[in-house]
Each structure stands twice: as structure tokens, then as C-alpha cells.
Amino acid sequence: MLNFPAGMAKSTMKDEIDPMESLNSPLPSRASRRIAKRSKASSRGGVAVHLSSQNRPRIILFESKLEQRVLFLLLANAAVKDICEQPEPFKYAGADGRRKHHFFDFLVVLASGRTIAAAVKPMARVRKHGSWRSSKTFRRR
Questions:
Q1: Domain enclosing residue 122, as ranges
Q2: Which pLDDT score, from 0 to 100, does residue 84 have?
Q3: Is residue 133 in a domain?
Q4: Where are the beta strands (DSSP E) in 35-137?
Q5: pLDDT tens digit sequence for 45-55
């Protein structure tokens, strides 16, 4: 305890909050599948974020630099309330009638309550493989 000379104002901090409580590790990722292992042309990682829908920070993983950039754009948007990476697979009937599933990269919940499933792919890949056709199929069903 510090001793102050007579007549000098004494300042004290009175915190009701346990300072050790803020040192808790962030919550783990909510991804429903394991993030793929690193390859030559990819980048894997995670970011600790504190979204308005959570009481503690949580790790959000990404599998590419493009996903990382999209994640940062989502985090900068005040309308975004929650983000879940690699959510549970979306199940649908393929053109051949057989059951299929797709893992979206992000499931985004907006403050308005609207939920958006986002597939993050380089445009060259979308053009080459026609991924946009599949997303139109998802919308119609």
C-alpha cells in the first residue's frame, strides 16, 4: 500500500470485477467438421472474435486467405450478429434425385434475424466448375 503525504489527494480503483476473469481463453470454434489440412496453395488459421451475440470471445477458423478476407469484411459489418464457420451440412436432392450435402463456409446471422449461408470460392473456380448453378438449385428448393 502506498503512503501519500498529508493533504495530497488519494486515488483508488474499486473494481467489482475479478481481473483474472478477463484472462479466460476464448471459446473454441463451432465448426461442424475439421478444417482441412494445409496444402501448398492454401492458408489455414483462426481469429479470436467477440461478437455481440456472445458473452465471451470465440475462435473462428478459416481455410483460405479468401475466407479470411470475407471473415474480416463480415466482422466489420455492424449488421452481423453471429458467424458460424463450416456449419452443419446443407442436405439437398441433386439433379439426379440422389441425396447430397454441402458444407457452406459461413452461416451469418444478421441483427434483423435473417440468416445467410455463404460459400466462399475464387471466381475463376466458380466459372470453371459452374458452382453458381448449384447455388441456384439451393435457392429454388
A1: 41-140
A2: 94
A3: yes
A4: 45-49, 58-62, 80-85, 90-93, 99-102, 106-110, 115-118
A5: 889 999 988 88
